[in-house]
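Suppose you are handed a protein chain with no further information: no name, no annotation, nothing but its sequence. What can you learn? This example shows the usual starting point.
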Amino acid sequence: LQRTQSQVDIAAFDLDAEPIVAALMALEARGIPVRIVTDTDNADLSSIRRLRRGGISVVEDKRSGFMHNKFIIIDNRYLWTGSMNFTTDDIYCYNNNTVRFDAPTLAVNYQAEMDEMYVARSFGPGSPQNTPHEQFTEQGIALENYFAPERELELINVIARTVIRAQQEILFMAFSFTNEEIGEAMLGRADAGVAVRGIFEKTGADAASSYYGVMRNSGLANVEVRLDGNSRLLHHKVIIVDRQTVIFGSFNFSASANRSNDENLLIVHDARFAGYFLQEFEARWSE
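A reasonable first move is to predict its three-dimensional structure. Written in structure tokens, the prediction is:
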């Protein structure tokens, strides 16, 4: 943030980390435009009030569904995105991921989503499906980029279609996993001999809608699931397919993510990139 030259856009479900707030205030003092979109439920935080007092414009979604994105666009080129809210707890206490991309094509996609929310005040299922580049190649790497809920069931289909292409292994880390289509896609591949290992956040895992119980009681020897070992939260929303493809973003594997929340999802097809998520998976699995 401190190296920003022209503009910063932030879509933040939750934002209270002091170093980030201070950096944004410093940018505003330098005359660098800062635009923020946040969820109405978190719009009265002292950090948000402080940013507004400092002259930074903050737009709220003003609806019951969440503005659940967590992304930062810097200078229309650099993008930070993942599962991590920009809060002290998310950074220091919860298991999360955030990725920095130097990818102008990807930044164009997120800029369109930001303008949709910040300028047009368009949120939720009624927002337009207008992502400029949903499938493209950046520096030789194939990427897919989608936003919900304008894609609604299509986005669940995209995830399920990626899962059913698995030939050897499916790994996942899930804060919330209640979606039947994704769950049954995984179990279908397990029936075909694909190994499935998954880590569930403890909170809510015992609910009837959670796929933790379904998978634990599937009777399939090649399906292994565990509850996370973090005394706070495992906040990842990650699926790794055949150690080659990573699905990640703000999107929980749930109906609310699919039908009502503003979310973003990335699919990266690259073994080296997948390796970083594999390291995190194995570390959390060992806990």
